[in-house]
Amino acid sequence: MIQCKTSKEIGGMGHSMRRKEDARFIQGKGQYVDDIKLPEMLYMDIVRSPFAYAKITNINIEKAMALPGVLAVITGKDLEQYNLHWMPTLMSDTQMVLPVDTVMYQSQEVAAVIATERYIAADAVELVEVEYEPMQPVMDPYKAMEADAPVLRIDKEGKTDNHIWHWEAGDKEATDRIFDDAEVKVKEQMHIPRIHVASIETCGCVANYDKVNNHLTMYMTTQAPHAIRTVIALVAGHVGLTEEKVRVISPDIGGGFGGKVPVYPGYVIAIAASFLIGKPVKWIEDRSENLQADSFARDYHITAEMAGTKDGKILATRFKLLCDHGYTDAAANPSKFPTGLFSICTGSYDYGHSYAEADAVYTNKPPGGVAYRCSFRVTEAVHAIERITDCYAQEINKDPAQLRFDNFINKDQFPYKSALGWEYDSGDYHQGLQKAMEVVGYDDLRKEQAEKRARGELMGIGISTFTEIVGAGPSREFDILGIKMFDSAEIRVHPTGKAIARFGTKSQGQGHETTYAQIVAEELGIPAEHIQVEEGDTDTAPYGLGTYASRSTPTAGAAAAIASRKLREKAKKIAAYLLEVSEEDLEWEPGKFFVKGAPDKAKTIQEIVFAAYTNHPQGMEAGFEATHYYDPPNLTFPSGAYICVVDIDKETGEVKVRRFVAIDDCGHIINPMIVQGQVHGGLTQGLAPALYEELIYDEEGNILNGTFMDYLVPTAVESPSWETGHTVTPSPHHPIGAKGVGESPTVGAPPAIVNAVVDALSHLGVTHMEIPITAPKVWKILKEKGAL
Amino acid sequence: MRASGTVIFLLNGTACTIDFHESTPYTPTTTVLQFLRSHPQLQGTKEGCAEGDCGACTVVIASLNQQSELVVEACDSCLIFLPMLHRKALITVEHIGTPEHLHPVQKAMVDHDGSQCGYCTPGFVMSLYALHHNHPESESSREVAEDALTGNLCRCTGYRSILDAALQVHDQASMTPNDQKQTIQGLQSLQSYPLSIVSQHQKYFQPHDLQEAVKLRSMYPEAVMISGATDVALKVTKNDEVLEEIIDLSSVKPLKELKITDHYIYLGAGLSLEQVKRTVEDLLPALYETLKVFGSLQIRNLATIGGNIASASPIGDTAPILMAYDAQVELVGPQSTRLVPMREFITGYRETSMQKDEMILGFNIPIPNTQTHVKWYKISKRKDLDISTVSGGFRLELEQDATVSHISLFYGGMAAMTKNASKTEASLLGKPWSREQVELSMDIIDQDFTPISDARAEAGGRRIMARNLLLKFWTDTHA
In chain A, whose CA is at the least distance from the CA of B475? Predict the structure, then answer.
């Protein structure tokens, strides 16, 4: 049970308060970008390339322009006149807004039609005649690295290959030496396929440029409105759109998962169109455009190795990555971390040596490496370490749970310096796994498995005990395009004691309107019900880097607590003045200051706030308002112990997840109901790539499953009845001891599922399965191993 | 009854008419979703995919059946053309509950944390609304709830909280008796007439009687015939096709006929797949199994058995099983009706033996005796709401000595049309129904088919699946 310091009426931390945002969502009154309609609004639709790699020899817009209702057809050549045909990516690479002469991936934007109606624009798209000279695309990252591979980015001066960057961490020589001498070495090749967040709301915007006032209001599906405004000002400042003339509004967002962090060409074209025509322009992707052209994740090829003793002591790990980033490096990683936080790959285990290296490469796929409920490569890292740990256990024939217990970092070793340089803040891995094993009934399951195996039935138990790394970031190390990754809160309490709190983050379903209110309620004792939370409008909210990578609670949540504490300090001064005692004589309990030893001599926070406007001490600034920009001293390191039980149908190869126990540790919990909801959702987005999702391209660069008919996201039927629980190891450096949680389950679930499937097949000599684990894949292995 | 071009329906309880003259922004193939999204006060209904795969646009459609009972169904509004609402009641999320008095399903969603980003929420709310109307409290089981929600995708919640909300016992039905009474009265008050819409570029007919339908079919042999339109709507929403002539058969009463005798079931072509599913559970269990995982409830409420067969898709799920049941297709033309064995009906990729002036009236399906095994199998990546990679409708009759006296093996997904494995069948006929014999025959399947590779499977994978389905059939049927 979670102990609450505040009453239910106040609704501070630990209360499963009902979500404030539900009132509008449940009645269909959410305001999403596509719900915004402005007078004289025009609609934009996009002509996209049918080829993955082709020269554009001609674009004929005559027929499209002749269609009644069509106002403009914009091509790359049009944008070139304003020097708007290229834009920077968040990784300081460059990306075409519209091509002038070459398309680099299938479904790339080629031209944009502006019309008076959405469906006229769609019809006109069909009438734009584009002539292409197709070329042979490069779809395989290994082939892209070969010496004779065609150089794709000839737009970059002096570029002679398809290599983007090389990154490495750790002591290579020392690690190699341990590998050379180790008793046991295991090695596995893994592919984390390209997948898509497929949020139910696609991307879109309404760009509204007001010529008279030279002002742009941009309503858009963005998780990071402030950063986007800065980027717009940097890109379009030369045509007069300086930062004070740009207002970005991120209204209700229908799911983001990282896919709504980057700047897509459609946004920029809509701005250009509105700027040129002087009317609002709406652009909303359809589902196929969304699945085929933007926000891809993963596509990492990983070689993972582990060295250890024969009795099960891990000594070192080694990782080599080939990262397929498509035609441009448009990931949303912090500048200094081109491969994100992959270096968390040493995992939850105590050993001294590791070395990781990565090379990124251009191919003729859409910009890759964005996000899928984990933007900073932690999923890839956790998959690698949790899989290779199981391979090691299998190699030395040791129970994978015992192997983990024997190698966990002990709770008294925190703060723990990992072999690749991170300082883990806190954790209790033994307790987590212990708890998960008790809940699932581990020993009985192992007995059941043995009996079933004797009967020829296939059942497996898989474990994943992962360490996450979230909350970017300490600004000394973390920035995006140079902007430091702090975040902010601004709290204003009105005379009657009701507050408005604004943040630099942006909820896309995480429930910030509720949880931030609970943090302020915890600190100030003002009922959460009376704290209105606002985000997403750059004109009103304080600057922040937005919501992704599970960073909101670690950064803006901390800012909320500290801004509240600043206000409590002020409240104390006012209370002392009102009660005519010194500040030292006052004691706080949620909602009031009282005189030590005389609890009936008290002033409630409401009385104190009222006094701040009506009767504040001489010399004190009036009002009751505070702002804080929080720069975390470290990241937070949530963890989890997951156990998955699968049954495999031998005849069809079908994998059924029978049980899934997830014990998460995200430190202090703000709202247990919301945390549970985040974990359920995250687990389902972990199940999805493990069993179902993968974007498939053929050699010609055609995407083969770019609709919801073929890109299968799990439904209610596929989703297991998740069994969740938690341990609480507070973050020592976070003001309320909280850690991020939204992405933990997506990170932790896939290896638990794969480990369970491999465990079911391990007696046949199977050591690894590539995700997604489909029935034909399993069946094929069963056939190869002679199990049928 | 004079035909008219005015569509009349109840929009959240109030009668609403639409004429398709030049100045209306709507055409006969404007979808209900597009219509709703064009009204600022009705934007609660969301577009997630516009192809019937995500359910964000779910609305409830209420109508009166032939017994004048109220039928309440969740449907994907992205797949419904406006005229299909004629004489029906459209209920959207804006109509149920108020901020002071949330509807019970809305309250359950709040209590169980069933909404996160909120974008799919209105669709779930409407699916739950229909679920609770059709399954008042005591009947709610997890299976029923899952079936009702299969057509709604959510990326945030992992569904558990929504299923919990669905299973919460309510002390109140979805529609109060008064609501029901008002809806029935409202529907009865709508004038009844066939639709004949002639707009600038399109003609849309919704006849009431069969003769009229047949006449229209002869007059407009190139017209697209629709009933639930779940397949045809995609041509409009995904391919931007302009359908010039449409005959909507959804109001032709004889197509809704349902007859059950001791030996036969007769299914009118216009029965929805959900109606068929509910009818055949005991009598044709393999057809029931087919329909249980067919699309989603929102799709099954719209799609008809006649439409699924007439589309003659090589991966249509009902064709192999109707063939295995040895069904006959009853066709009606201007002169007469005729019966065609189902196995001869489909002649090629999306081609049938139906003449240009004919339409499907219904299906005559013999009820197999207890010694006959009929089974249906489907291999797909996801269980529900997924297109089959390979499917099979199989039938087996055995002699006293367990030798095969009849075997039919109809496969979907293995060729350009649903096709039987004739060489494999021949290899089994008269032979013992044994594992050894089945394994020998499995090798012959390769001679029957040359499957293609696509995103769903490689050709080789399809061959393996086809072989395995035969083995599975043996496992399920041998003594």
Answer: A651
Q: Are A217 and A278 found together in one domain?
A: yes
A430 and A328: one domain? yes
Most A CBs within 10 A among B156, B468, B471, hence the mutation to make, goes to B156
CB of A52 within 8 A of CB of B128? no
Would you call B464 and A780 a contact, using CB atoms and an 8 Å cutoff? Answer: yes
- What CATH number should be reported for the domain holding residue A558? 3.30.365.10
Nearest by CB to residue A27, choosing from B99, B455, B457, is: B99
Residue A365, SS3 per DSSP: coil
Q: What does CATH list as the number for B97-173? A: 1.10.150.120
pLDDT in tens, A188-209: 999 999 999 999 999 999 999 9
Residue A456 lies in a domain: yes
Averaged over B155-160, what is the pLDDT? 96
CATH topology of domain B257-477: Enolase-like; domain 1 (3.30.390)
Instruction: For residues A607 and A641, state if they share a domain.
Output: no
Residue with token string 């109307």: B133
* Extents of the domains making up chain B: 6-94+179-248, 97-173, 257-477
**What is the span of the domain harbouring residue A261?**
33-135+203-284
Give how far A655 is from chain B: nearest CA, Å.
Answer: 11
Q: What is the rounded end-to-end Cα distance, in angstroms, of chain A?
A: 49
Known catalytic residues of A? 223, 373-374, 743
Q: Are residues A669 and A747 in the same domain?
A: yes
Task: Tokens for B248, please give them.
Answer: 């909507």
Identify the CATH class of B6-94+179-248.
alpha beta
CB contact under 8 A, A254 and B119: yes
* Cβ partners under 8 Å of residue B124, min gap 6: B55, B58, B109, B114, B115, B149, B152, B154, B162
- Subunit contact A681:B156, Cβ cutoff 8 A: yes
Write out pLDDT tens, residues B58-98: 999 999 998 899 999 999 999 999 999 999 999 999 999 99
Taking the C-alpha atoms of residue B375 and residue B325, their distance in angstroms, rounded to an integer, is: 9
A378 token code pair: 């932690």
